[in-house]
Design brief:
Chain A has 184 residues and is of the alpha+beta class. Chain A has a single domain (55-184), classed as 2-Layer Sandwich (60s Ribosomal Protein L30, Chain: A), CATH 3.30.1330. In chain A, 49% of the residues lie in helices and 17% in strands. Chain A is built from five helices and eight strands, in the order H-H-E-E-E-E-E-H-E-H-E-H-E. Chain A has a four-stranded mixed sheet with strand order 5-8-6-7. In chain A, a hairpin with a 2-residue loop joins strand 3 (71-73) and strand 4. In chain A, helix 3 packs across helix 4. Chain A is globular, with a radius of gyration of 18 Å. Chain B has helices at residues 2-15, 44-54, 59-73, 89-94, 98-103, 148-164, and strands spanning 33-37, 41-42, 77-79, 108-117, 120-129, 134-143, 173-180, 187-194, 201-202, 210-215, 221-226, 233-238, 244-246, 253-259, 265-272, 275-282, 288-290, 298-303, 309-314, 321-326, 333-334, 341-347, 353-360, 363-370, 377-382, 384-390, 396-402, 414-420, 427-429, 434-440. Chain B is globular and about 70 Å long. Chain B is built from six helices and 30 strands. In chain B, strands 1, 2, 3, 4, 5 and 6 form a six-stranded mixed sheet that branches. A four-stranded antiparallel sheet of chain B has the order 9-8-7-30, with no helix packed on it. Chain B has 446 residues and is of the alpha+beta class. Chain B has two domains: 2-164, TolB, N-terminal domain (Rossmann fold), CATH 3.40.50.10070; 173-440, Neuraminidase. Classes of the chains: A alpha+beta (184), B alpha+beta (446). At the A-B interface, helix 1, helix 2, helix 4 and strand 7 of A face strand 14, strand 15, strand 16, strand 22 and strand 23 of B.
Amino acid sequence: MRLNKIFKNALLIISAGIILTACATKKEVAVDKETPAAPKEETKKEEVTKIEKIAGQMQGDVYVGTDSVKYLADGVADRVFFATNESILTTASRETLRAQAAWLRENSNITVVLEGHADERGTREYNLALGERRANAAKDYLMTYGVSSDRITVISYGKERPVDSGSTPLAWSKNRRSVTVKAN
Amino acid sequence: MIKKFIIFIFIIIPIKALALIEVDITRGNLNPLPLAVSPLSIDETSRKNFEQILDKENIGSEISLIVENNLRTSGLFNPLDKKAFLQAPDIANLKPRFEDWNLIKAQALITGKVNFINDKLRVEFRLWDVLAAKEMMALAFTTVPTNWRRVGHIISDKVYERLTGEKGYFDTRIIYVAEEGPKTQRIKKLAIMDQDGANNKFLTLGNELVLTPRFNPASQMVTYLSYFKNMPRVYLLDIETGTQEVVGDFPGMTFAPRFSPDGKKIIMSFAKDGKSDIYTMNLETRLVERITNHPSIDTSPSYSPDGKYITFNSDRSGYQQIYVMKNDGSDVKRISFGNGLYGTPVWSPRGDLIAFTKLHKGKFYIGVMRIDGTGERLLTENYYQEAPSWSPNGRVLIFYRETKTNSKGEGFSAKLWSIDLTGYNERLIKTVTDASDPSWSSLLSN
């Protein structure tokens, strides 16, 4: 109980820190999104051949199929997909999120959880952070389209909750995702 | 190797009256030292008493089996087949007939005796240098009978230390995550076991996802990530009392926890708004300190053994690499410059090396580099493996490995493995269930 008190103090210190850095953070994140992707040249060559076999389901290494996709409402897909090690929203992802934002604006009583995920080809702790970054990319976009931040909670599962248990580039592409889930 | 070894001894003996068996643990040991572990002798009354208490027919043999198994798995020793032993255990412990042991090519001999005294287990053991015909060490322990496995581990540590000149790692425990169920719905529990896989115990029920448990230096407390109430936060668990408390209750996810070498702080990552930074919390004052402040992902922090430096991985250069900084967050230097991605840096208990996971061309490697990033050495390559943890003497790394699934997405497994710093002696660590995220305790006794 004494700990509780100390703990609250600690929290205050932290929240103060966060408020102070909040503005700076957002700008920096935006800059990050424009920087080009991590160097994956070496893996790309091998993957290209594989990707051709599963044409139609992936663009680059981003999943564009509908296999695991669920719907929040008619025509409102619940998830967006990412390239390896990336949290940049693709054109298709932005379209999906705009539809989600429109639906959320119409149903203003609904709150959502954005669940960020990574594929299995990364270390566990980095993947937890990456999942969080992906869900936040989706959150930022929903907010841009008029969804208030207090209706959105973010959680990362890293590589802990794959939808596809395969060990193939296609399976990994389905697992690199941010899923919007109704919370109420 | 053996030939060279014998010659060495023979040259030494005439010059110095005192011959010392020495095992070089800095190189891959392809010719482990042949040694004989004579079963500990036991009188009939003691034997019956222990049989009643412990349900073991001959506790003397059981303890010597533990010693034998430990020394064998170290890869440095080759315990000889007991069937070849000529001398009875009780007589050998009084005065070995060195010619007999020499005959079966044993270079060292372990003998001993077990007694039941005042409801306690008393074990004495001796280590003999067979070629020099000398006693190298004699020790006795008294403890409660249920501690018998630990006695075996302590004897192993003493023998290892006497013959290699370095502390052993047998009287230790491993905390890890026990896994069950399909890959898409894994059930994960905290579990603890002795270094050799015995005494496995589950510490959580599997109701919530738990990850990355790590011991404090006293090996009494564990810090880990739990998704309790679906809020990923860093927790602290007292293994003896079972009490748990949240330590990383920040407004966002806290993860990747580890103790400082003095056990007073927890260092961890805190993720918010798409960026992850490194923080510490003092467990006594609960004061929180921010260590990094960068829009990138900074995670997997690990202190140097003197507590003055921190290594971590960050994607601030565009992709995941290893960095070292002072413990206040100043003087950040990137140390990994090879091809591929680098993660999970862990500072060696000896201070001179950092172990890591590397991802390159679709393969995962466990490797080590010096603390300035030079001398990179990859120890093992696989489809997926990560998260090395050092043995307390810095000679062995434990990590986990996951298998590729087949075209139907079946055949997934996660197992613990260990490998010597030399790159030799790779071993599967048997666990009751699938397992991941191992963390090695310090030596429980000294």
